[in-house]
Design brief:
Number of domains: 1
CATH class: Alpha Beta
Order of helices and strands: HEHEHEHEEEHHE
CATH topology: Leucine-rich repeat, LRR (right-handed beta-alpha superhelix)
CATH superfamily: Ribonuclease Inhibitor
Number of helices: 6
Distance between the termini: 25 Å
């Protein structure tokens, strides 16, 4: 895992696919450093791993400092409702104004259950009202795949 992160930084990799590698919390910490570093990485596929809500929190926070990544796939993990909220935060403060609708050509792939969770918690949809230094953080993320997380 460390070598994948190091190689991505050194070679300016644009697409990194780490599908089905049994990645968990420790790997999420390594990946968050890569994401925070705002490398040229545009597409990151982390599907079919062992990420939980704590990993999603770390990745979501890192996305706030990255304006280059355009697509993140965390489908088929175990992030649950709390993890979905944690990882959607960058999209929420960047313009998600209602469940399933993302402005500026952004797309979120959400299951029916995930959309219901967002509709039951409307306060999650008001983070784009932030002001001050928190509002200046910006994610360039345009697509996120959250399918089949439980």
């Amino acid at each position: 895992m460390r070598s994948a992160v190091k190689t991505t930084r050194l070679l300016n990799i644009l697409h990194l696919n780490l599908t089905d590698n049994m990645l968990g919390f420790k790997e999420a910490q390594l990946l968050s450093g890569l994401i925070r570093g705002n490398t040229p990485l545009r597409i990151l596929n982390l599907s079919q791993n062992h990420f939980a809500h704590d990993s999603a929190l770390i990745l979501g926070d890192a996305l706030l400092e990255n304006d280059r990544m355009k697509s993140l796939d965390v489908s088929f993990n175990r992030i649950g409702d709390l993890g979905i909220r944690n990882i959607l935060y960058p999209l929420l403060i960047h313009g998600l104004t209602s469940a399933g609708t993302i402005s500026e050509n952004s797309v979120a792939f959400l299951s029916r259950q995930q959309l219901e969770m967002l509709s039951r918690n409307p306060d999650l949809l008001h983070h784009n009202q932030l002001e001050g230094p928190e509002r200046r953080k910006h994610s360039g993320l345009k697509a996120i795949n959250l399918r089949d997380n439980y």
